[in-house]
């Protein structure tokens, strides 16, 4: 067991840009795409991830976050719980006992779900299993029970896999990512909330007629409605609020304009490597398992961050989040290190609202308000989890939290429900099982329709 854990710790330490090419290469060979094509596909995916990370870290991380931090200092904001960011949350999750076994455990769960036809997703994004480990680690702390923590992590993954399957057609259509699903523990948790409020807004007179999307903006404003100029204008606005001088304001404007241009290009490069693997997977499944329906490759939601509507919504809501944090009764979290991950919240919200920026902003305000209260509520457990793995606390901080995954509504529901002990775990397990069985029925129906369509020569 020690050798197995050491192996997966080594794999975990390689990082997504190394692990993903290896996984894609192995998957390509298994699916019969050939060694040469598999190597090329794997390396192209790795380069795409490196490009995404460079753009996100260099432009969002070193441009947007410092600007908002300047806003915090400028307006003298002071809240007692520090947002330490997703890298810290991931380190806390993977350093826990649940985190030590989450990669082999997650792979096993995915294989079982594929064999039982309860998922269509081959989740190759094993690094992001840390989201499931994070939930499990908090449950283990709350209940003082490792088995309950492991159960919570598995339940979290099953629910996310079902949601990833269900939302995959929207991903294909809106984000132009054929054969891709997003079983991402943070992003996908917001899909049910977006579906609910999107339905509610469909029923409200006047509100249901408002539709602001990039196509509309571009038609009305011409070149000034293009993503590069939208990002630049929003960047200039944030720079002014941060109190930057003219040089800083203009630099931030150009940087955020660049984000809206470069991220989609990096995502397209990543897709270039994935398409042959995705096509081979679909052909493999349809040839050998006619009741399996379509197969999706599960990836990190970073590939969808570059959608112009997603980024425009995020740039509007980042400064607004600071204002909400200050005036919201009951909130004690100071948004800080995770400000750059706000776009990840909206990767699935954008397709669900049909790229309607107005609805995206309304739903965004709702999830941010609720998220801050969740992050405040989970802060004591997150702080204990951090101390358990010897995480170095920020100077002067008594408690820490994060937006990702500390503000995650699914994480909160599972933690609080499993906190009731075996009864709560049983309830959440039944919910996950019902979702999996429902998904199996949906997949079989989809496979039947595909088979009939193929038989009719359509």
What can you see in these coordinates?
The model has no long low-confidence stretch (mean pLDDT 82). The protein has 17 helices and six strands. Helix 4 (86-95) crosses helix 5 and helix 7 runs parallel beside helix 17 (422-455). It is 71% helix and 3% strand. With 458 residues, it is mostly helical. It starts with a helix and ends with a helix. The strands form two sheets. It has a three-stranded parallel beta sheet.
Labels describing this entry:
458 residues; single chain; mainly alpha; three-stranded parallel sheet
Distance between the termini: 51 Å
Structural class: mainly alpha
Write down how many β-strands occur, each being a DSSP E stretch of 2 or more residues.
Answer: 6
Please state the CA-atom Rg, rounded to the nearest Å: 22 Å
- Give the proportion of residues in helices: over 70%
- The chain-level mean pLDDT equals 82
Strand residue content: under 5%
What's the SSE pattern? Answer: HHHEHHEHHEHHHHEHEHHHEHH
Low-confidence stretches: none
Basic shape:
globular
Largest sheet: 3 strands, parallel
The strand order across the widest sheet is: 5-1-6
**Number of helices, where a helix is a run of at least 4 consecutive DSSP H or I residues:** 17
